[in-house]
Design a protein that fits this description.
The protein has 329 residues and is an alpha/beta fold. The protein contains ten helices and 13 strands. Helix 3 crosses helix 4 and helix 7 runs parallel beside helix 8. Bound molecules: oxa(dethia)-CoA.
């Protein structure tokens, strides 16, 4: 029997200093603070303004903080996974750029694209490197510069997204703490509801695609909302029942931060009291692959060794799922 689990032994988040408030957005599109706050829970979001900087630079900031916090040398890192849908460029990977910038010269590195589920899909992937016994130090970063895909003439989407990165270190654990289980899904039947319409191999960039704003996020909010509620709550329910635990056994839920109403209904469905639900959407909006680790970072001072923690996400694909962790420190 394999007695080694993959545990998170450090977490560090980073977001740029510049902020876009609801009031500022109301000067760009026909919206207002009351609508945005009541429909989404978002008050402001961060933006990486410096045009010289991109997603890999945010990933670097998160990893540098993580290495310092965990007293780890960059050259000891063996694998780096960057969960992102906003790599600096289509290729080379954001992870390759990130690894070289931090001096991780003994690591191999790759990107993982699963939109808002990127962190949980990445965590399940990263955990396999540890439990295989072959790797001892794996870094997973969720990093997205969502403002690079945001259309500031479209009120349906530009109010939702922001920029951030957050990283975790995974190491072997012999005490039974760390990643316990994952329930992960994809179903692309309704992929058109949430996508970037052009710029991929199916529809390369042309003057027409640029003119039609097809290089910005497209989302049909209502159908995505409905299926996100069911998807996140359903996956979380499945992981609880599969592991014979109930809401009473959960110390914290760290949900993807897309909409406060989706977060609340997932928590309600699991029977969790509000203090068990980690929420920071009001400060950052939806930072896609970065929401869960950034929230984990901001709430980690409350976590105790052995705490049962549930992660849950829903995003483009559709892709969704939930994970069950036992906090390791
Ligand atoms: O992270 C990946 C997964 N994504 C999600 O989970 C997001 C899921 N969807 C949502 O969070 C919500 O659907 C939104 C926040 C995107 C939209 O909220 P909604 O309550 O579903 O609003 P709606 O799209 O149904 O729009 C209601 C009304 C419409 O006006 P009419 O047709 O009723 O006159 C919209 O045009 O609100 C209008 N509206 C706005 N009004 C002011 C849409 N956006 C805005 C806005 N400000 N920014």
């Amino acid at each position: 029997m394999n007695t080694i689990t993959a545990a998170i032994t450090g977490v560090f988040g980073w977001a740029p200093e510049d902020v876009i408030t609801n009031e500022e957005l109301a000067q760009m599109v026909d919206t207002n603070d009351e609508w945005i706050t009541s429909r989404t829970g978002i008050k402001e979001r961060r933006v990486l303004k410096n045009p010289q900087l991109s997603t890999s630079d945010m990933a670097v900031k998160a990893i540098e903080g993580l290495l310092k916090q965990t007293n780890t040398k960059a050259e000891d890192i063996e694998v780096i996974i960057v969960a992102t849908i906003t790599p600096d460029m289509v290729f080379p990977s954001c992870a390759a750029l990130t690894a070289t910038k931090i001096g991780a010269k003994n690591a191999f590195a790759f990107d993982l694209n699963s939109a808002c589920s990127g962190f949980i899909f990445g965590l399940e992937t990263a955990a396999q490197f540890i439990t295989s016994g072959k790797y001892k130090k794996v870094i997973l970063v969720g990093a997205d510069k969502m403002t690079s895909l945001s259309d500031y003439t479209n009120r349906n989407t530009c109010i939702l997204f922001g920029d951030a990165a957050a990283a975790v270190l995974l190491e072997p654990n012999a005490e039974g703490n760390g990643v316990i289980d994952a329930v992960l899904h994809v179903d692309s039947n309704n992929w058109e509801h949430l996508c970037l319409r052009a710029g991929g191999a199916m529809k390369p960039a042309t003057h027409e695609t640029v003119d039609a704003h097809e290089h910005f996020i497209h989302q049909e909010g209502q159908p995505v909302f409905k299926i996100a509620v069911n998807g996140m709550a359903g996956a979380a329910r499945d992981i609880l029942s599969r592991n014979n635990i109930t809401g009473d056994d959960i110390a914290f839920l760290i949900p993807h931060q897309a909409n406060k109403r989706i977060i609340d209904s997932t928590g309600h469905f699991l029977g969790l009291t509000p203090e068990k639900i980690c929420v920071n959407i009001e400060k950052y909006g939806n930072t896609t692959a970065a929401t869960i680790p950034l929230c984990m970072y901001e709430f980690s001072h409350k976590f105790k060794k052995g705490d049962n923690i549930i992660l849950a996400a829903f995003g483009a694909g559709y892709s969704w799922g939930a994970m069950y962790l036992k906090w390791a420190y």
